[in-house]
Amino acid sequence: MSIHHLLLKICRFKPIGIQPFEVKKCVVIMAPHTAVADFFLGLMMIRLLKLKMVMVMKKEFFVFPVKGILKRIGCVPVDRQHALHFAEFAANVIKERDECHLIICPEGTRKRVEKWKRGYYQIAMEAGVPIGLSHIDFKTRTLGIGKLFYPTGNYEKDSAEIEAYYYGMVGKNKGQFNLEEKPQAQHEWVKQ
Which domains, and CATH codes, for the chain? Predict the structure, then answer.
């Protein structure tokens, strides 16, 4: 048993999904994102799946003493005031690497939002890569990448299908995830 399996067991989370994860490049969206704890649980999942992680974080997190650690694990600072060209910047990060799994929280914040940001989709389209649907669900106590989604260019249709994957999932802070009131999506790992 790896250290990551042990830590997840201690946290009472069951890893699910695509193993081994063989896609060399993709955008991985992680939801629900309602607490800082999501970062640490997500990091365990990423290590367990052996992903070549690149994660964008607001530059305010990059201060001594954590700055060096964040850079070493694959985090890239982003100035949210210059977000206009972010999708192009992130797509280029993917294109320039042989292997890259760009982690994005589509909600863009830990607070409740009713509409997800489009950036993850624009990045995947620009880079020509699939979207890994990843979750940290405190209701079923599961986390992982459950499926790959290949964007078609029809954002409205695709985003509806992507969001349906997350129906009924609950974040650490109940009530903060906009899709938790929806009927639970029927995944093979959810006990009926």
Answer: 24-165 (3.40.1010)
Residue found by looking up tokens 């530059």 in the block: 59
Query: Rounded CA gap, 180 and 164, in Å?
Result: 11
- Higher-pLDDT residue of 65, 190: 65
Could you read off the pLDDT of 97-139 as tens digits, one per residue?
A: 999 999 998 998 888 889 999 999 999 999 999 999 999 999 9
Per the DSSP assignment, residues forming a β-bridge with 133 are 29, 147
The one-character DSSP state at 190 is S
Quote the strand ranges of the chain, DSSP E.
14-17, 25-31, 53-58, 75-78, 100-104, 131-137, 142-149
